[in-house]
Amino acid sequence: MGLLKQFTKSRKACKVTFLFPKEAANGAKAVEILGDFNNWEKDHAVPMKIHNGGFKATVELSPGRDYEFRYLIDQQKWENDPAADRYNPSPFGVENSVVVIPDKMER
Fold this sequence. Notes:
Elements lengths: L1 E6 L6 E7 L1 H4 L5 E5 L10 E2 L1 E3 L2 E8 L3 E9 L3 E3 L6 E4 L5 E7 L6
Antiparallel strand pairs: 1-2, 2-6, 3-4, 3-7, 5-6, 7-8, 7-10, 9-10
């Protein structure tokens, strides 16, 4: 698992690539990302594409914010990202992964 962050040339957005490796996928047919950036709505979940046996998706996020998210595997199982910047408790008794997007990236 992992998070790769890259600001756009305009610096008005940060492209975050979410990586979910095949070892964690454990034969999954589909992995989606839900979080603050899509209001946790399944109808707006970010589908991940198969990549090297795992899954990958890129989302553009606004800088200067933290975003909570989780992976939904085969519409049944929720997983966090061990490479998350940190974790926040949720009202459901579990923690959510957090990706922190700074105002600007270090060079």
